[in-house]
Amino acid sequence: MFSEKLKNAPEGYTFDDFLMVPSISSVEPKDVVTRTRVSRNYNINIPIVSSAMDTVTEAEMAIALAQAGGLGIIHRNMTISEQVEEINKVKRSGDLTVRDVITISPEESIKEAQDIMDEEEISGLPVVQDGIVVGIISRRDIKPIINSDAQKRVGDIMTEDVVTISESTSPEEALDVAYENKVERLPVVQNGKIMGIVTIKDILERKKFLNASKDKKGRFLVAAATGPFDLERAIALDEAGADIITIDCAHPHKPEIIEFTKTIKENIDADLLMGNIATKQAAEDLMAAEVDGFKVGIGPGSICTTRIIAGVGVPQLTAVSDVADVAKDYDVPVIADGGLRYSGDIAKAIGVGADAVMLGSLLAGTHESPGDVVIMNGRKFKQYRGMGSLGAMTGGVGAGTDRYFQEVKGPMKHAKLVPEGVEGVVPYKGPVNEVLFQLIGGLKASMGYCGAKGIKGMQEKARFVRITPSGMTESHPHDLTITNESPNYPTTRLM
Predict the structure, then answer these.
(1) Among 275, 435, 445, 493, which is most buried by a count of CB atoms within 10 Å?
(2) In 58-147, at which residue ranges do the beta strands (DSSP E only) sit?
């Protein structure tokens, strides 16, 4: 009986076990479209999601990912109020309209107006009386008389004929209005009451990110993580405007979690992602909770030790393909989470059914990742740790403990934990947009080789050849000493 367990065990494969076979193709990388679904109801423009880790994703990373067309998942190793504020930062950043408008009354002096503009570092103020916009005043209006009549009323010199727009005005329309009327700022009004303000500067800045991932209101998309039983957090994240909420759990294939997921789903409007899973059966059983997407991967991450400590896991390509077989029947997207080291691995994950990939180590160490840059032996590094590491479990709010179903009581926390992750440092990589450029460039090259114009085409057309360890050795640069390191093939990668 026991020997049969080994004899009948299926083989599991990961990225280094396969290459994709080139096909006849008229597709050029520049013509490739990488838009994809990340959940039932949300699309992103590049298939990259940042991991909900406390050394990878907070607001700054989520903003950068959304600007590039991807999605950031705010980690949960913080209080609910702190996580809500991170979501607010992302949404405010992506909102063309400044909601917290600084205004002035027509009865105030121009000296007061100037002081406000100096303090807030702005060049103009809407003039508001009883909530109604009655004028606008700028530094240009004040400058000729500030020295001779500083106590003059704002209402006496303000521009009364104010050019305004409504909330339904598109950025393009707003820009046309601003240029036509030769104004730098446009109050947003509803029934005469000021709702916000839009500036030419903000409109032009927005045009830099034409590929950005946005919600229906034009704000950046953002996701946030919650625990498997943390309904309070899930509701708070939903009310804060999170577009997608992810249940952050090492092993959600449990009857009690499946049942509670139904409760979370019923109490939020956001899409709900579930993870991490690695088998067909888990995908089938979790569909009872009507989740909107799966995160796939148990133990493949560079800082995860689950497969060694627990002896459990499924090689990542096999896990992704198995879950995708089920997910496609339910029209549910799949996110491959972990084990990706190069852009070619992203292409392979998509080729076996992933709709997007979740990255941790590849984004850790960038300027936008949380943490300070440290210098060791003359080189720059940033901290990177698994959420199953001692540091993550005992730091912040200890989100790693319930993720791995551990509970700590008493002062000696470290003595009561069984870590399933490590912590260390990774080389500092600079701005994340440079990393994303290389990753997406490699993916587009792969899709060109395979003759796929889009993500669905890649899933359909990708063909694989199994290779030996010798084949993988042959695949890497060999028989030379690299003297000029490529940005997409670092020789200093920490394994």
Answers:
(1) 275
(2) 71-74, 124-129, 132-138
163: domain CATH number is 3.10.580.10
**Active-site entry in 219, 233, 403, 450:** 403
Specify whether 412 is located in the same domain as 275.
yes
10: pLDDT strictly greater than 70:
yes
pLDDT reported for residue 493: 52
For residues 9 and 101, which has the higher predicted lDDT (pLDDT)?
Answer: 9
Is the separation of the CB atoms in 136 and 186 below 8 Å?
no
219, 233, 304, 450: the catalytic one is 304
Q: Are residues 89 and 115 in the same domain?
A: no
403 is catalytic: yes
Question: Please, which residues have CB within 8 angstroms of residue 293's CB and are 6 or more apart in sequence?
Answer: 38, 39, 40, 244, 271, 272, 273, 274, 332, 333, 334, 335
What are 298-307's pLDDT values in tens digits?
Answer: 999 999 999 9
Is residue 414 over pLDDT 60? Answer: no
304 included as an active-site residue: yes
- 191 occurs within a structural domain: yes
Cα–Cα dist 464/42, whole Å: 29
